[in-house]
Amino acid sequence: MSKKPILPLNEAALVCQAREGDREAVRILLERHWNWLKGLTYSVLGNKHDMEDALQDLCVLVLDKIATLREPERFRGWLATVARNNALAHRRARQLQPRSQSDEMDILQPTSNGTLLDKIAIKEDAQRLLTALDGLPEKYREVFILKHIQDLSYADIAELLDIAVTAVQIRLVRARRMIANSLAGRPNNKVPRT
After folding, report:
1. Rounded Cα distance, 154 and 158, in Å
2. What's the CATH number for 105-184?
3. Cβ neighbours of residue 71 closer than 8 Å, sequence gap 6 or more
């Protein structure tokens, strides 16, 4: 009986094994990063079904391209770049329209057991929030989703998007302001700079 080799917990060591063709190492690496990959991909595509297609393609891409990663300790940044470029390619190829909000309501579904009126009010609020998110420029929507839906830290978002932490903070402030204006029915007259 042959035993499966024990895979290391160290990410750089897993990357080295993955570069040598170890599919189990690739699976573990993707599994560790799956939640933020979903958030990043969704923030670019804005559609759950297209996100799922893009993530499937991403798995194949990572298998094909991991050997090109020169510095195993930079895996997370490399993965973010590959995922983002893959999502952008999906969007260009499909010439996506803005997401159908009725299909995407599951992102913000209420988890409480409130009354029917409470659930309707929450659903209406979620619908308004999705509309406001749709109105954000991509770079603000991306940061907002990674922070508030995927619950990533400023440092993690900065690393994933290859921008400074201060740029993340500024984009979040502007995204929140644009969402607040949209929810209050006020126009967003100024075009944000960063």
Report:
1. 6
2. 1.10.10.10
3. none
